[in-house]
Amino acid sequence: MNNRKATKRALLTSVMALVMCVVMLVGTTFAWFTDTARTSVNKIEAGNLDVVLEMEDSASPTGWKDAEGETLSFLQKQANGTVTQNANILWEPGCTYELPKLRIVNNGNLNLKYKVIISGATGDTMLLDVIDFSGKITDENNAVTDLPSVSMNSTTPVILDRELAAGKADTITLNGTMQTSANNTYMKKAVDDITIAVYATQATGEYDSTRNDYDKFAEYPEVTTVQIAAGEEAAVNDAVKNAITAAKAVDPATGKTTPTQIVLPANTTVTLESRVATPAQGQTSDIKITGDKTTKIEFQNSTGGSDGSGTTYQDGANLTFQGVTISGGTEQFVARGGVVTFIDCTINGEIKKTTADKFVFSGCSFTAPVSQANYGCKDIVFDGCKFDTTDGYGIKIYSEGYEKAKTNNLTVKNCEFKNSANVPKAAIFLDHIIDDLTYNITVENCTFDGFTAEPTANNKWGNREIITSSFIKSGEQYVFAYQTGNAAPYRHTLDASQLVVDVK
After folding, report:
1. What is the largest CA-CA distance in the chain?
2. What would the pLDDT profile of 398-410 be if each residue is shown by its tens digit?
3. pLDDT tens digits, residue range 416-430?
4. Selection from 1-5, 341-345, 432-436 with the highest mean pLDDT
5. Alpha-carbon span 416 to 383, nearest angstrom
6. Domain 51-202: which topology?
7. Which of 132, 224, 255, 349 is placed for a possible disulfide with 329 were both Cys, Cβ 3.0 to 4.6 Å?
């Protein structure tokens, strides 16, 4: 009996304990068995639109070279049957001359459409009224098509407008013909600085999941050409300022500025005011200024520099100067967020402390060195330039290093260096006093004259010493050397990973 009661009590106790456990678990979080399965989406990569204009070049391994900044001369057949370029052809009514072959290459991975426009000119522009341009195009399948004849007196003489698939190229041949109607009015007239420009934008072709015409309304980057009339210097300057102001104004419909080419008259000095080309914040202006060698451009400085000159600011501006004379120097040329290009310019005066996304000098002549190149610009290119200075060098590299581990790229190719004063300097030298910087310097197909004396330090901006192990020679000519501070904290040496100099 007692055993039965004991068993009942034990069972009742167990049941009560079980109930209590259930009650306690009601307010808790249960742990479930779990598992995860996932996949990844392939990388999102924007397409690349990249059009290149090349010109025929027998000396190039590919038979072509980049035509950006090059000056083309018409071809002339000689008495012996050979055909050569001639920049001094005398035109007559009925004559036809041909330019070297050009090639438009789609180096991107998107289909594009492009148009070729002939524009700009200085001098006796009335001569263009009686010269027509035509030509032929050869596509990637070697099919040849005649191009329409275009008169230069039209507002926007478009010589070609067509599509080009990714990785393909078109070859064009352009001819200039003087009309037989040209009379004595046009004798002894001359024009310069005609520009052949290629404008490209997206074209249909690539399919998304549903269609391939999403980019059929893509527009060309239209360029406005403004011809500045000759007149009093003050009037010319006002006209230039007004043209630049209009170019950098933001179009409320598109939210963009208008790419503009400003053609300056001959025998005129134009003052480019500091900040005049700087657009509204967040915008970029694209302005090209052309003329001839009698057209002088002076940069107006906004602040006094250490040597009494000053700084000119054109932030956010892509600026191109072509065919003009740059008169005087500047303490600093600042175009942060922009690209500055000089094409076929004569530069009288020292350009210092170059600050921009990129500086390009193509076919320019220098009577003073470019000093402190790469100051705030990681990429500087000199192509086909001539240096004839009395300072003993042509290019001085210097960087303040606004960013840690900043890389400075300097490319010098097809250039001529002459040390007229025979001062013991290298043609290109580096002034290095800031740590955490690297330099990639490429010198290709250049000539040097007068750099036979062993370089000495340039102490223009303080005490420096030459690193003798840095000397690089081409034959008997000293091409490169670098110097550094002679005491802490400015004495720094560069190892092989920080300084790469390739002389070809």
Report:
1. 146
2. 888 666 558 899 9
3. 999 988 889 999 999
4. 341-345
5. 10
6. Jelly Rolls (2.60.120)
7. 349
